[in-house]
Amino acid sequence: MEIRYPFHPEHVRTFTTDQLRSEFLIDNLFSEGAINLVYSHIDRVITGGACPTNGALTLAGDPKELGAAYFLERRELGVVNVGGPGSVTVDGQRYTMQRLDGLYVGKGSQEVSFASDDDAQPAYFYLSSMPAHASYPTTHIPISDATPQHLGDISHSNERTIYKYIHPDGAKSCQLVMGVTLLEPNNMWNTMPAHTHVRRMEVYFYFDITDNNVVFHLMGEPSETRHLVVRNRQAVISPSWSIHAGVGTGNYAFIWAMAGENQTFSDMDPVAMDSLL
């Protein structure tokens, strides 16, 4: 498990490109036959990827890093499959996971394992875990059951549909809020006009970036913006003081996961376009 630490925004202003990437970009989420995890001390969020290619992979806790007997002893977990068909088994209960299916796994679940239906076309399970102080039932969330919200328009190149998976009106959780955003064809911008939500941090996971395309993820204070070049199946840790917007050289999709003071999706502070620098 890789460990990342928080930084004051005034410190981030001084970062080089390499420093910015090493602290906020997660570029090694998926390895075939392994589970990779990154622990951020920003709200103690764990971001991970599981790609089973030679039998099932089990999510194991590390007493030194988590101070827990098992991974979800005091945590909850959100899972979205962005690869081939697979399954997640939670304490003996198997959940079939097609592409873009989600799963919420509640605090106290002791054994979680991931499997691909076909090792030649493996599942890619994106993982997001936050501390939890209450237990909610494990819930399977096909994308057809997720709550959609249509935003943007073609004139601003940001027409998109947000599918809410884990939220107060859907799969219940202690603090995790999670979903998928799919941009319509020929649309490249996300989350613009930009905003911050100082009461919650967020992690953005970008996928379906094809060929040699990239996404330019915008971050930083509104008056001190920076950017990260992001490639397929990479993620960005977004502190609560930072904007989080992006534009791609081609169509793409992303998963957002949030943790913090509340679960109110609309709790955000808009940033006027003329104040961005």
Task: Briefly summarize what is shown.
The protein has three helices and 24 strands. It has 277 residues and is mainly beta.
Oligomer: single chain
- The largest beta-sheet arranges its strands as 1-3-4-11-6-9-12
Distance between the ends: 35 Å
The number of strands is 24
* CATH homologous superfamily grouping: Jelly Rolls
CATH topology: Jelly Rolls
Number of helices: 3
Low-pLDDT parts are none
What can you tell me about this protein's structure?
This protein is mainly β. The protein has a single domain, classed as Jelly Rolls (Sandwich), CATH 2.60.120. It is 6% helix and 44% strand. The protein is built from three helices and 24 strands. It has helices spanning 9-12, 17-24, 63-66; strands at 2-4, 25-26, 34-40, 45-51, 57-58, 75-81, 86-90, 93-97, 102-105, 112-116, 125-131, 139-141, 147-151, 160-166, 177-183, 189-190, 195-196, 200-207, 215-221, 224-230, 234-238, 245-248, 253-260, 269-270. It has a seven-stranded mixed β-sheet with strand order 1-3-4-11-6-9-12, with no helix packed on it. A seven-stranded antiparallel β-sheet has the order 2-21-18-23-15-14-13. The chain has a four-stranded antiparallel β-sheet with strand order 5-10-7-8, with no helix packed on it. A hairpin with a 4-residue loop joins strand 3 (34-40) and strand 4 (45-51). The mean pLDDT is 94.
